[in-house]
Amino acid sequence: MQEIKCKHCKGTNTYKKGFRQTEHRGKIQKHYCKDCRRMFTQDLGFYRMRHSETIITMSVDMYISNLSSRKMKNQLSRHFNLKVTHMTILDWVRRFTLKVSKFVEKLGYNMGDSFYADETLIDCEGRNDRFWCCLDWDTRMITGTHYSLSANPAQAIKFLNKAISKGKPKFIQTDGGVFYPKAFKKMFYSNKIGGLTIEHKIQNYQKTRIHNYKIETVFMKIKDRVDDFRGLKALWSAPIMMMAITIQHNFIEAHTTIEDVPCERAGANLPLGENRWLDLIKLSAQNN
Ligand SMILES: [Zn+2]
Description:
By secondary structure, the chain is of the alpha+beta class. The protein has helices at residues 53-64, 69-80, 86-105, 153-163, 180-188, 205-208, 213-229, 238-252, 262-265, 276-286; strands at residues 14-22, 26-33, 38-40, 114-124, 127-136, 142-148, 171-174, 189-190, 195-196, 199-202.
């Protein structure tokens, strides 16, 4: 049996004592701590949330799958007679994205040795922002993302550091961006071998047109989603959007051609049922 830690003093000298009746989530087990003599309830992922787990996870999933928060709000009203504001939905997305992200960051992954990097211009409030993304070919996992207001070697280094934080490829292929060679040299040059420890391959459009069609389609899908989030910058910080997209891609949606969720191919076998967001949130609460 899993021992239950007191919320207040972290002691394990606790026992079950009665229930708390909640309006939307039914009865919740209460516990008593003999050490500090206080009552507490466990955080099973949805602590103090005023709506059901199903409604919350459905909203998060659909929002990240491209339904706007206002449309989601209307759906909840029409089909469940639930009145929530679109801001509440954004709050759920933000809150649970951060929780799950913290959890999945701690896991280990078996990635392959071929990484593909790509950066896109994002037209945001008149600025040309950049969205950077790196994919592992074998698993199709997003290995790292970065959002910046400009593209230069310093930003490329920040991006590449995130891209290799979970795996070490033999090579990373990029486009012909002029900032990459400097960044690679700074990060991966070794005097001992007189070269780069991670090879830099440059995609040559003139020669090959589309170098790697399969990886391009994955990038296209991710870019579409980033485009849909445009204009929400006032409500959202870009890093959380990137996290949400990454979680949805790596852990929630089965890849169309490989018919696996990328995290499974990377050996992260999490006990996730049909409602993957729900189970991810619960796992995150248990492992925080
Ligand atoms: Zn206690």
